[in-house]
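Deliverable D4.2, example record:
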Amino acid sequence: MLVHPPDRPTALPPGGANAIGHTLGLVGDEWNLLLLRYAMLGVRRYGEWRTALPISHAVLTRRLAYLTGMGVFEKAEYESRSRRLEYRLTRRGRDLWPVLLSVWAWEAAWVPEHVESLPTMAHRRCDRPFLPILTCAACGKPVRPRDIVGEFGPSGTWERSVPAATTRRRSTSAGAGVFPQTMTLIGNRWSAAILGASFQGLHRFRDFEQRLGAPPTIVAERLRLFCELGVFEQSPSAERADWLSYHLTEKGRAFFPVVSTAVDWGERWHRAAEGPAMTYTHPSCGQDFHPQLRCDQCLAPLRGHEVAVERPAG
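Output generated by the structure prediction step:
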């Protein structure tokens, strides 16, 4: 059984799912994302999640067990007499904050109808509300997807980067205060895989199907949804007029901070025996690219303990 220590990277066996696959298995599940969202806002106890979410006892129990097994939560007694437990974010779990902040920032910019449901973020260092800016950790310059060159590393293949199927949550979460567009992009394992593949240059239907090993009906559904959301746009292929190509729009490219911070988290906390799954470089400075979030108000690098997150009013 694979062990995920909460304070050091997981050693992955050769030939299995790589860092990306394990990360997608975590963030590519709607319930996991919801539990993490509330955990970042201070929720720790079983009953608090049950009150905040329309989740059954069975599903909540399974997801808490999964996140604990992944080293993201740890159980601790908060009432010794009755041996009641709460679930606290570990170092590994707290390290997911750049991913959550990137999700909230994208929603604020591109899904205005959900802004009132977003947590409020303030930077304690400058004492102002902020939005994170994606920059290169090596040189500090802001980056966009076209500024970064990415390729598979020694453990990186499409097959190893798609997680094995797990129990999935049905996509009817609007009543839970969830952000439906974000869930459409990363709340499903195939959505997350297709989105990640598009950032690596895939744009044809058959490429998504063949490279990812995804069922054609799933690929067709995901591409349709991405186009409806304005994340992809379709156009005739340069190879054949009766073929379609799917390219990221500006809205889709703006999701890159979520993708890059998730991959970076995965590589830090999952070490494959063969080496990394993905390698990114920033040609502008000639260094390996690692994402760093900066405050758009004071431009200082953001640190987890300097970010104040509060629940939305009401």
